[in-house]
Predict the structure.
Amino acid sequence: MSLETTEIQDKLVETFGENVFHFNQEKDIFSFEVTADKITAIVLFLKNDPTLRFHFLTDICGVHYPDNAIERQFVVVYHMHNWYENKRIKIKAFINGETPDIKTISTIFPSANWMERETWDFYGINFIGHPQLKRILNMDEMISFPMRKEFPLEDGGRTDKDDRFFGRTQSNR
Amino acid sequence: MSELLLPPEHRYAKIIQELHNEDGSELSILNLGPTHPATHGIFQNILLMDGEKILEAEPTIGYIHRAFEKIAENRPFYQITPLTDRMNYCSSPINNMGWWMTMEKLLDIEVPKRAQYLRVIAMELARITDHIICNSILGVDTGAYTGFLYVFQFREKVYEIYEEICGARLTTNMGRLGGFERDWSPKAFELLEVFLKDFPVAWKEFENLFERNRIFIDRTVNVGPITAEMAMAYGFTGPNLRAAGVDYDVRVAHPYSSYEDFEFIVPVGKSGDTYDRFCVRNAEVWESLSIIRQALDKMPEGNVFHADVPEYYLPPKEDVYTDMESLIYHFKIVMGEIPVPVAEIYHAVEGGNGELGFYLVTDGSRTPYRLHFRRPCFIYYQAYPEMIKGAMLSDAIVILSSLNVIAGELDA
Amino acid sequence: MKMSDSNIKMVAPPEGVSGEGFFATTLNDVVGLARANSLWPLPFATSCCGIEFMATMASHYDLARFGMERVSFSPRQADMLLVMGTISKKMGPILRQVYEQMAEPRWVIAVGACASSGGVFDTYSVLQGIDKVIPVDVYVPGCPPRPEQIVDGVMRLQDLVKSESVRRRSSPEYQELLKSYNIK
């Protein structure tokens, strides 16, 4: 691998300063955090920079941390991949739990379109500027966001299974 | 007519109003799916059509949304493999192995070479079955039922091998942390040898039936082409991307389970059309067969089939009754109380349809804090409306089956 | 050619009185026999079990042996709805619509754990068994069931069909059943 993580870090810090932080190597993936409102600029930079060339968006997903401070309750995780140098990176953007807004990157990567819709569907994270932000997997009529931690896994309305007989509780642990 | 059915804010309503054909003919709206027989699985597309030509398409998915990711947050790590089975059910072992390898990456478990080779064999068998389904169904959709009946019996042969390995046919739940649940029986190797002998003959005939078949060529060449740039922008991976001419393969880019030990070609197409996708899958089957052969030949001696990690791997049952330590491990594993570090892991394997990724966030408890599956089908299916624009209705069906979109994986 | 020389398998005739040139039996039995051996399946395949159904239909298991050569993809012509795979809540109304489009007499087989009870997917998005929306005649267990099991499920349905009274579909009990599902 000729593209060193230090080079990625230097370039990002040089261009975006304090908006990029918490660099660390997690197993085989180089990972860092960004401030949420700079996400489009950073992704665009990573994609178009002639040495970085992270031209492939592997994945977008959300994670919910209800126990965190209010401005760090949701995180949107972006996985990008440079096929020329075979280098993967992970970008995390923490956003506010009450107004989970972040800019869309579907203008940069068309593949982000559905991934962002899925994240909206699961977590209610609002991607500003998304062309068609509506439910994708669940029914349009649904009002809650099922992947949030407070949402129960099982359907509350079911009548055929009694938890007492299955030894199950709602708790995660 | 169409005004009655469509809410005025729907984008088709505007297009219909604006577009008038010179001969006075109207555009029509056709609802394709979700239970249409030719959309194997359940995909709904609302098509705006001019005669038989598709102008616009609007896909709706989620008809088989089963909330895998939510279930995964509520299940101990060992109970997640059965879920991965049901994601891409055409090639379950790849999903199983992908999940175990994610766990092994998390726990830093080194899997012995022999177990890795066995895994490679299982995964390549799965790839073959996946491609058998895709290509034979593509044949059915272009009007050749024979090919399907002919090669489908070889899926049965692969199922028989699976049954020898793990006892199940389709949803295999194969493997355990660090290797396999039991050593492969001599019968499994025997069946494998028979398969390696018989299948190439049948597959060659299947290829001959289609590759220079005039009808097949007319139906597939230049149908649903996609350029390499478009394919990458839409997040294509796997055979569909390679058909467009990009040689990205996770097995080569980030070798896992000792794929670096094997010699194989990554077949690429040129124009990314349906015919190229068919040919790339065909070629991959040959490569998979060659990988299986190599793995069998290079298989290390002995009967090691799992890593020596007593805290994660169930002890033999007789030890549980006689040995205190084994009993404790057995109890902890069965109750899902294994020690797991706090970490974030991304691991990708080359699934039947592309890069199948597992993004795992743990918090040290007995369940994943978050498990996200990067499902290749979900990501590349969004290019489908773009690909069928301007195509005939019957082409739309062929394009769909050549993309090999698996509903279970699409909707998670 | 005598009947015994032929290798064509015939179903056994129903109970009845036979003599020189005639055979008398009840209408029920004849109709049942005819219906049971020419069931046209409508595969409603959504997921994993659908792949096993493909295996059942393919050369190895060959469901055509039971008079089910013609898979009917149009609900109007089908007699037997085979629901294979998970039915999510989003899919429920569509399944119901398909069932309503089928003409009487119609039978339903729930193939696999998901269609029967929701299976492992005890989640917010999955219908906990299709019997919540449509009446079911035969449940086939398994996740997914083996093709033999699917074939067995079909044969059990044939038993039901054979013994079904021709008047059942207009009986008040049946109307009551449909009413409980709110199907007209």
Q: What stands out?
A: Chain B touches chain A at residues 61-62, 65, 67, 69-71, 73-74, 105, 232-235, 246, 248, 253-254, 343-346, 348, 355, 357, 359, 361, 365-367, 369-370, 372, 374, 378-383, 411-412 (CB under 8 Å). The domain at 68-411 of chain B is CATH 1.10.645.10 (Cytochrome-c3 Hydrogenase; chain B). Chain B has two domains: 2-60, 68-411.
